[in-house]
Amino acid sequence: MKAEGKSNAQIARILHISESTASRYTKLLEDKISQYKAEQLQELYQAYHMTREARIRNLGKTLERIDAALEENDLKPVPVEKLLDMKLKYTTALKREFIPLGDEAQPANEAAELTVTDLLGRMNCLLSALKTGDIAPDQAGMEIKILESILKGYETVVLEERMTKLEEAMMNRRNTE
Question: CA-based Rg of the chain, rounded to a whole angstrom?
Fold first, then answer.
């Protein structure tokens, strides 16, 4: 009942228990309530086509219908310009949903060229994907850990470079004195 949005007072009335007992059980079952809420949210995402997979399927189906209409002999109900414009918009929307997988994701030689801004941008994208249900929490957590490791390595390299420059500056100063 708590996961469905009922207050402790409402739960207490329905179950004929005290409000403090309802509150204790709410705290005791907090993890299960959160899990149930997440499951309900995922069901809503799927029901209303809010997951990336559902959006891709819907965009693809619509694009197929537009292509079929373009191939028909009788295009009088919809002007050709309008159909072409719709095709362009749906193709663009479908491309925005693209997530590179496996070897397509990033060639090994490009990994060294990542900047802190790139890493933070990817972390932000993961957060957005997690909020919209496009990525599972465990997958997002794993990807964040990888990005954090890369960021930490980058920070270490930058720090080492600064230390080397500082040591060189100190050596040059000693040599000139």
Answer: 27
CB distance 2 to 26 below 8 Å: yes
CA distances from 48 to 54, 55, 124, 176 (A): 9, 10, 24, 72
- Tokens representing 83 are 């159909």
pTM over cut 0.70:
no
Identify the sign of the CA torsion 41, 42, 45, 47. negative
Structure tokens, 92: 């663009």
Domain spans, the chain: 1-48, 49-98, 103-177
Burial of 134 (C-beta count, 10 Å sphere; 0-12/13-18/19+): buried
Task: Compute the average pLDDT of residues 152-161.
Answer: 82
Would you state the structure tokens that stand for residue 111, as one six-digit string?
Answer: 């990994």
